[in-house]
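Dear colleague,

Following up on Tuesday's group meeting, I ran the structure prediction for the four-component complex that the binding team flagged. I've pasted the input sequences exactly as they went in, so you can double-check that nothing got truncated or mislabelled along the way. The structure tokens for the whole assembly follow below. Feel free to forward this to whoever is handling the docking comparison.

Inputs:
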Amino acid sequence: MKQSDIDKIRQFDRFYTNVLKLTDKYHLHTHYTLLEARILLEINAGTNTANQLLTLLKLDKGYLSRVLKKLENDKLISKEVDPSDLRIKKLILTNDGHAALDVINSRADSQIEGLFANVPSEDINNIIKSMEEIQNKLKE
Amino acid sequence: MKQSDIDKIRQFDRFYTNVLKLTDKYHLHTHYTLLEARILLEINAGTNTANQLLTLLKLDKGYLSRVLKKLENDKLISKEVDPSDLRIKKLILTNDGHAALDVINSRADSQIEGLFANVPSEDINNIIKSMEEIQNKLKE
DNA sequence: TCCATTGGTTGACATAAGCAACTAAATTAA
DNA sequence: TTAATTTAGTTGCTTATGTCAACCAATGGA
């Protein structure tokens, strides 16, 4: 692989780290952390056991366990033992959890809108195409 | 802005957060944190006052001050008062700092190589084009 | 039945990050 | 020229975030 290619990729990584840092602040206006928001999102999308979240989000299991407990204490999720394997607990969004996720999602959407406010719509289309290109080629 | 566009962008953000999480582990094999590595990189690239780092990296100034002090204690950087404004301290990489940065850079390069190991070189070219497209259109 | 593995929890601890109050130097404005 | 404001950076204190290892109970295989 060419060194100049590596340099370009690393530069993009630095650039996009900053972009994410900006947009990732959406949780600031709710009282959930970025990680909590992400977890609610993923549970809602069907990643509904601690172990699945673990592989998806690459966290420490003890840490995740505590975050999930906090979400449970806050009544955003509930846990339901899987009858076919009593070790597994299915994670379920409560009504409050859905409501919280709705707020988080709309704030996150607004953040993206803000970030792209000054970008012409033609450019937006190109950016999205580029994002899809990256994902398609990079996801193994 | 179309909701479907926002959704695609948010999905890319989640995807690339994971990519960064993977690649950003390069510091694990050195004994510097990701932030320390980034700071050394930026100082070397010319961002050489605490205040400049602050706006670039969007950190708390107190926190940054401590991280810089640690780098100074570890003899990776030194501080030199700017004669034209005694409040400002120019940050300078020491020899050890340069050496550390070399190690960090080569580890980071290897990480990128690893990530792209299975990607055909034609795809790599397309990915890089896409990355440049995103940066060009998005940077204000 | 014994043993290794798996999903998840807990305790103890370490590191990262944030806020606010504070110096000292520089700038503005009177 | 001095008084008020702003700026660059530091420090004390606190909370948030993350790590490691030991652990328990359920499972599956030899």
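Chain A has a mean pLDDT of 91.

Cheers,
M.
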